[in-house]
Design goal:
Blueprint: H1 6-17, E1 22-25, H2 29-36, H3 47-56, E2 60-63, E3 76-79, H4 95-110, E4 117-121, H5 129-138, E5 146-150, H6 160-165, E6 170-173, H7 177-186, H8 188-191, E7 197-200, H9 203-234, H10 238-246, H11 267-280, H12 286-309, E8 318-322, H13 338-347, E9 351-355, H14 360-364, E10 371-372, E11 385-388, H15 400-406, E12 411-414, H16 421-427, E13 430-432
Parallel strand pairs: 1-2, 3-4, 4-5, 6-7, 8-9, 8-11, 9-10, 11-12, 12-13
Helix pairs in contact: 1-3, 4-5, 9-11, 9-12, 11-12, 12-13
Bound molecules: nicotinamide-adenine-dinucleotide.
Residues 2-8, 25-28, 31, 80-83, 96, 99-100, 103, 123-124, 153, 155, 157, 265-266 line the site of nicotinamide-adenine-dinucleotide.
């Protein structure tokens, strides 16, 4: 496994758990040292136990350079390095992937014997990338010694292990029949339990499936967010609207909860990369282009919503923020709505105190003016307003009566519609929800 970040570490640990022998390589020596010392560099429920167990039975080990790889020729090399989007063009930066592929190919060519290795791209990459990976590897290995494949990753941070062990579907694609056969065998412990494997006959199809899935999810989220704003204007209730459309199984009830906009390490970058690919092939995706614009606008409009809840001006006001991660159960703050909302509030003159159960360290650098609290409760101390940005379950069960007394003004803006609003109103809070939601 080349790259031991979110995807590499979770996938590596899960492959070990279903019986394979895994070596995880990452250039980040600090990360590997921590893993070798029994620490887990990311927050992911269940991962620590999984890694510890498989390490103790010798199924997984961690190295920070290829010199420490002294096993036989591997059946698979999974490439799980980052593919961030270029700030200006939106294009996926594939430099890490090509370097990783080249270094891995060199290593495999230096090992004794003539095994056959499938180089599998797990990173999310634009259509056509695996073909280029094949060229890179072909400089070091003869064509009969390797094949390339795509096996896009669909894990959700916070539920990553369950997503691996009980996937809706596994997608693998390769132009090589041998590679397809080997991948089918590798995933047999999961397919045997009834989890579907979609085998695509071209690499390009598997690559495109990943982007199409994420673009669709981004569209669904953005759709309900826009409708939630309309609900507020026309005296409609977005929760009832979601129920009313979601029970139609052509639509489905998932991803229909309104919020402050999508973020994270995948949807923002994958939508941009897909748009870029589509433009390059002269087949623009106008819906996805609009979704990206609408999501960005929606995040900015949250600042206006908060300002309105504060009575029109937030100048010199102190505002508490609950949640920095882009969603609950992760420490990932990449492109999180909080990173748009907080600077927006600061620009309008507010000072911010924020708390997140896992994401504070990651957010610190992007929020140089923000004060960070040690607990959710501290966020309420002497503030004029509290905004719930991320739906962490622990935010739902606070000691509201005490917090009511701690606030300068007992005003709450719930951007996720998860708080017990009836109870809050009874205590005396002024509650602002999303999309006309009244609350339970
Ligand atoms: N995080 C997710 O939820 C998720 C889900 C599905 C797909 N993906 C995709 O998977 C890929 C990896 O994402 P991530 O979140 O795990 O990224 P990450 O940044 O957490 O991890 C990437 C790791 O690769 C390492 N790396 C880079 N170059 C290397 C090299 N040459 N050799 C060894 N290690 C190297 C980095 O040090 C880093 O630890 C991306 O393409 C991403 O889009 C991510």
């Amino acid at each position: 496994m080349i790259g031991t970040g979110y995807v590499g570490l979770v996938t590596g640990a899960c492959f070990a758990e279903i019986g394979h022998s895994v070596v995880c390589m990452d250039k980040d020596k600090g990360k590997i040292d921590r893993l070798n010392n029994g620490e887990i560099p990311i927050f992911e429920p269940g991962l620590e136990e999984l890694v510890a167990h498989n390490k103790s039975i010798g199924k997984i080990r961690f190295i920070d350079n290829f010199d420490d790889f002294d096993e036989n020729i591997p059946d698979f090399v999974f490439l799980a390095v980052g593919t961030p989007s270029h700030k200006l063009t939106g294009q996926a930066d594939l430099s890490y992937l090509f370097i990783a592929a080249e270094e891995a190919a060199k290593k495999v060519s230096s090992l004794k014997g003539d095994g056959f290795t499938v180089f599998v791209t797990k990173s999310t990459v634009p259509v056509g990338t695996s073909r280029k990976v094949r060229e890179v590897i072909g400089k070091h290995l003869s064509a009969d010694r390797f094949a390339v494949a795509s096996n896009p990753e669909f894990l959700r941070e916070g539920a990553a292990i369950e997503d691996f062990m009980k996937p809706d579907r596994i997608v693998v694609g390769s132009d090589s029949e041998e590679a397809r056969r080997m991948l089918e065998k590798m995933y047999r412990p999961l397919t045997r339990q009834g989890h579907p494997l979609v085998v695509t006959s071209t690499v390009a199809t598997a690559e495109l499936i990943k982007y199409a899935a994420n673009a669709f999810l981004a569209t669904k989220i953005t759709f309900i967010n826009e409708l939630s704003r309309l609900c507020e204007k026309v005296d409609a209730r977005v929760d009832e609207l979601s129920l009313g459309i979601g029970l139609d199984d052509r639509i489905g009830d998932k991803f229909l909860n309104p919020g402050p906009g999508y973020g994270g390490s995948c949807l923002p970058k994958d939508t941009l990369a897909l748009i870029r690919t589509a433009v390059d092939f002269d087949s623009p995706l106008e819906i996805v282009e609009t979704v990206v614009r609408a999501n960005d606008r929606h995040k900015h409009l949250m600042v206006q919503k908060i300002r309105k809840a504060a009575g029109g001006s937030i100048d010199a006001k102190r505002i508490g923020i609950l949640g920095l991660a882009f969603k609950a159960h992760t420490d990932d703050v990449r492109d999180s709505p909080a990173l748009t909302i907080i600077p927006g509030l600061e620009q309008a003159g507010a000072s911010i105190v924020a708390f997140d159960p896992e994401g504070i360290d990651q957010a610190r650098e992007s929020l140089p003016h923000c004060e960070f609290a040690d607990s959710a409760e501290q966020v309420f101390d002497n503030v004029d307003l509290v905004v719930l940005v991320t739906e962490w379950p622990e935010f739902k069960t606070l000691d509201w009566s005490n917090l009511y007394k701690a606030m300068r003004n007992p005003v709450i803006v719930d951007l996720r519609n998860v708080l017990p609003h009836e109870e809050l109103r009874e205590i005396g809070f002024t509650c602002h929800t999303t999309g006309g939601y009244i609350g339970a």
